[in-house]
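Hey, I'm writing a tutorial for new members on how sequence and structure tokens pair up, and I'd like a real worked example in the thread rather than a made-up one. If someone can provide the structure for the chain below, I'll link this post from the tutorial.
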Amino acid sequence: MPAVGLDARVGPVGVTARGDMAVPDDPSLAGWYRHGPAPGSARGSAVLVGHVDDDTGEIGEFAALRGVRPGDRVEVRRAAADPVRYRVVSRVTVPKDELPSSAFRRSGGPVLTLITCAPPFVPDRGGYLSNLVVTAEPVESRAPGNGRVQWPT
């Protein structure tokens, strides 16, 4: 992700009272969905979520995902282990209530799934109506990532 400049600290998140995945209040932070695999796990989808912006207009770290394209690299730095490097393989925009269940899978090959809000923004309907879902696969290369998230905060 050379041009996007994503650099966020990560902390665990769960679910809201409504059953939705929680998102950190601070737009400079990313949340790891703690009910699924962690980045670097041998199987399943490690999910990181963050804000595009907040109610004050402050731009969130995950706004950078708008510039991500297949082939871009991302690095997750972990406090207790070596960094994990990924290559973006897809990006898709979906209606907010239609997040693919595969984004939260606990089996199969390892992937990193990054999720943030996407237009349209309709205040009368609660804000952003879509999500941008970026999927990345692990790479063995020692080359540094172009974007990174700090694990954990």
